Amino acid sequence: MTFPANPFKPTAGVMPPVLIGRDMICEDFSEGLDDGPGAPDRLMLISGPRGSGKTVMLIELRTIAEQRHWHVVDETASEGLCDRLITQIAPDPGIFAGATIKPSLMGASLGEVSTAPALRPSTLRDAMNARLKTLGKNKGLLVTIDEIQDADPSDITAIATAAQHMFRENANVAFVFAGLPQVISDLLNANVVTFLRRASLKKLGDVPLDDVRESFASTIRGRNVAIDDAALDEATQATEGYPYMIQLVGYHMWRASRRRQSNTADEITMRDVREGIIQARARLGEGVCAPVIDNLPERAVDYLKAMAEDDDPSSTAQVAERMNETMDYANQYRAKLIEKKIINAPERGKVDFAIPYLREYLRTQLASS
Ligand SMILES: Nc1ncnc2c1ncn2[C@@H]1O[C@H](COP(=O)(O)OP(=O)(O)OP(=O)(O)O)[C@@H](O)[C@H]1O
Ligand SMILES: [Mg+2]
């Protein structure tokens, strides 16, 4: 018998075999859709650190809406967010006042719209209303927006304004926004979008270890691969309940077993688990940190690498010195990195990493360069 395919998914935005510990959120959302316009969970804010499962949560909520035959539009925040939403939502984007169609180079059927900023809230509303008209009775429109921390504030304001009007008119719509915790809390405190304070806030954190253990057991044994209780405990503990780590440990212990097997006894042994944990730890930084680093200018990365030489918060003066730059120069990068929530300033003259495992990740980079 060949070893079954690896069920674990240690990849950003890919559904895990079991979505652990998120039942309540799914129930709240389902109820929100079923209860009709005005239900609080039709406006949801999902906040959580990197790798906590925001993107897969949005995918799950999308599925829930689709099961009710809702129309779903997903977007990821970046420049032009509002225009992309209008293009996606409108059944025919060309008909809206203020929306100019950009000729599409790809020859796509509809092309993209480009809307004057002041007209975005009303154009978005028109687009939503037009879409709702094409949907059957009781069928609504769900809009999900991921990576809200990368949104332009004017786009957020436009979307929130449009959403507020739709709710006021009792339209059959729902909105879910997901982003990093700091940004979600800033958003809630911002005066421009007080409407968002009404949102149902869901904080994604670590999941209970009992549930992790149970999901490992069912995912593994359910595929007729054996694992004993001690091995199961060891694997569970190593995850610390962190969703991305759960997939990493699962994936690498499965792989360790498959590679060792003389392909008769399908079993994940304690040895496989320990090997898997080592592999998982080595990759943790990659998954969470590489996407952050890849988007930064070289000198900003140098700033972070200078910080990584310390075991705890770094002195800004020392970082500048290590970079061979003046304080003024280094501080430009300090400000940018703080703004991007990659580092924070725990006290005057100090900086610290705001992303788990980033220090360790940079050290492995320094060691290999
Ligand atoms: N509830 C969960 N149970 C088990 N695994 C999960 C759960 N949520 C997410 N995962 C797994 O964790 C990893 C990260 O998930 P996801 O990409 O959704 O996180 P994220 O919060 O969107 O991260 P980022 O901020 O980097 O975009 C994926 O491998 C996913 O399969
Ligand atoms: Mg994500």
TrEMBL record:
<protein>
    <submittedName>
        <fullName>ATP-binding protein</fullName>
    </submittedName>
</protein>
<keyword id="KW-0067">ATP-binding</keyword>
<dbReference type="GO" id="GO:0005524">
    <property type="term" value="F:ATP binding"/>
</dbReference>
<dbReference type="InterPro" id="IPR027417">
    <property type="entry name" value="P-loop_NTPase"/>
</dbReference>
<dbReference type="Pfam" id="PF13191">
    <property type="entry name" value="AAA_16"/>
</dbReference>
<dbReference type="InterPro" id="IPR041664">
    <property type="entry name" value="AAA_16"/>
</dbReference>
<keyword id="KW-0547">Nucleotide-binding</keyword>
<feature type="domain" description="Orc1-like AAA ATPase">
    <location>
        <begin position="37"/>
        <end position="175"/>
    </location>
</feature>
